Amino acid sequence: MAITDIKEFAHLTEEDLEAFGRELDAVRRDIEDSRGERDASYIRRTIKLQRCLELGGRIVLLGSKYRPAWLVGTAMLSVAKIVENMELGHNVMHGQWDWMNDPEIHSVSWEWDQTGPSEQWKRAHNYSHHTYTNIVGMDDDIGFGILRMTRDEAWRPINLLQPFANIVLAATFEWGIAIHDCSQQKEMDGEMALPYWQSPSNRAFWAKIIRQVGKDFVLFPALSGPAWKSTLTANTTANLVRNLWAYAVIFCGHFPDGAEKFTMGQFESETRAEFYLRQMLGSANFDAGKIMAFMSGNLCYQIEHHMFPDLPSNRYAEIAEKVHALCEKYDLPYTTGSLGKQYLLALRTIHKLSLPDSWLRATSDNAPETSSERRFRTGDTPVVHALTIDPLTGKRRGLRSAIAEARVQLRHAKKEAKRQARALRRASKGGRPVSSLTPTHS
User: Is 102 left (phi over 0), alpha (psi -120 to 50) or beta?
Assistant: First the structure.
């Protein structure tokens, strides 16, 4: 099984875990206590920038029959849609700015510029995804019901089409999310047995689609007069660019190697500290400068976002420094990499898991996308044999595999040394004799 046991993965004592949780609670309090005019000015400037970009793009596209105007207008509109979706819509609806008590910048009132109704997205995303993050069978955002992204889901013949389905999902991402969210709300509200048009969720879904499609593909092209065709293609292109970018950011934060999967049993007895840990282990960051961070809605800090989804996004870079330092302190993984690397890792998983498990060389225990729990396991560490022969299967193993396993043992030994050192420090502070300590491993 590829599912991660949080306590085994983390190699922390109960005392360590509680201390870890307290330090993250302190990070939250520091940000909450320091929110103020600087943050309010940031979100108001972002809204003003986004509206100026959209208005400017719409005006330029009135002359879209001229190629330079089409290019400039399409670029401005694409950026405006990305900013509205990523840094505004997503973050405002998470309640990151509710503390301002501004009715125009509030999670209750914000309606974003895409086909899915905000209310349905908040139910499916804010509640289901952020509560049950990466819990197999509970978090439907694992593959969005379309892609098989973990071996803990049984392979079906339809998964052979997964590489093609992934391309379709990327190009139509807002539609995929809208359909996914509508289905989630219908299921949560017990509407699945109702006739189609008697479902309130279906009616809200289609009302939003009519407004959105009417705006982008009827109203604004009509306002362009003779240039309506080129404006129509510009709007289509801007939506496509926004969809592809949003898809890439989301997949880089949820599906590269190191983004772990969990069980419902772990959730049922989860403490606050274990919640933080699950969010950390189930998410991944990607490296970004200020501009790329802004364009990604600061979701390049996906780990921090999953730990603190309702804290202002402009503070995630600051939070990330503290979280990274805590990972170093407690010897925990902090999964990050370049945007290209993280996406290629997710893409590899999409293509690999389109095939039956029997066709794959690696198992769920040693495949690179699911092997993290073995790297941090706290039980008996397997011995590296001089011969490159697997003692269980009798199959030859490559030299690279043997070297990797040796590194596992070395890392495990370092962790054990750190644990013993911490235990010695605690014992000396408590006045206990060193001889009273018992090792945690044989």
Answer: beta
